[in-house]
Amino acid sequence: MFSGTFTAVVTPFRNGDIDFAAFEKLVEAQIAAGITGLVAVGTTGESPTLTHDEKHEVIQRAIKIAKGRCKVIAGAGTNSTRDSIEATKFAEKAGADGALLVAPYYNKPSQEGLFRHFKAIADATKLPVMLYNIPGRCVVDIGPDTVVRLAEACRNIVSIKEASGSVDRVAELRRRLPNEFTILSGDDGLTLPFMSVGAAGVVSVASNLFPAELCALVRACESGDFKSAETLHRKMGPLFKDLFIEPNPVPVKTALAWRGAMSFEVRLPLCEMTEANQARLRKTLEAFERSK
User: Fold this and answer.
1) Considering Cα of 79, then 42, then 3, then 232, what sign does the dihedral take?
2) In a domain, 271, yes or no
3) Catalytic residue among 126, 161, 253, 283, which?
């Protein structure tokens, strides 16, 4: 259901409000580069500091701009099952192609609690669901046994964005899950190793900046041309690393602002990069551009 290159798209701001003109240009650039789909109002889209109305408008705008030219997956996960159900129902009504459901954060549910949470959401919608496992942010880990249970119990839970950082985890999931259930890398720098053991693509931050290059990397892996994929991976490796020298999406928004694509703005508690890290990121970007 979900495979290829998905951009975890940023939410541009200007003077405190969402800059929808910049958002439209960004989405059009992604589509022109051949991206498979967009993930709207995920972590990279600063979902924690968007109001409910803003989240709804970003999702609606993404769907309207895309016009079916790429998939649109709506970020709908929260640490409240009721809120997640409401968000997923909205995404379905708006015409999204799927919902991304992050593991509940802060309240630290058990594996049984995770299972019941995701099953309740899946049962409330016909939308295809992509789970999102990122224990570094959420503290809880959606264990392989739980993923397998959910795949067996819910026909519309069809994919997982795996950001545990473990190649072994991806290999285990691929071995235990049905072939039609897809695994996507949640980390740009792990796209190649994850796809080498059975992942089907990536949900990318770097593709906000370089969508064509990320698409090329994923296509090379899909075709089994891992030599070409490794060449691209090596070129982009420093970029993948330095886009996370400060909390995401601060570095990627900074780089987009340098291009003139949008303002630097993020919402508190996020803030601008230090001068030292800006200098480092500029150097990395310039080196990558020279290598192209």
Assistant:
1) negative
2) no
3) 161
For this structure, is 132 an active site residue? yes
Asked whether residue 261 is assigned to any structural domain, the reply reads no
pLDDT tens by residue, 64-116:
999 999 999 999 999 999 999 999 999 999 999 999 999 999 999 999 999 99
- Residue 216 sits in a domain whose CATH number is 3.20.20.70
Of 132, 227, 241, 283, which is the active-site residue? 132
Model confidence over 1-59: pLDDT tens digits? 799 999 999 999 999 999 999 999 999 999 999 999 999 999 999 999 999 999 999 99
Structural domain count, the chain: 1
**Does residue 191 sit within a domain?**
yes
In a domain, 25, yes or no: yes
Domain extent, residue 138, equals 4-223
Name the pTM for this structure.
0.97
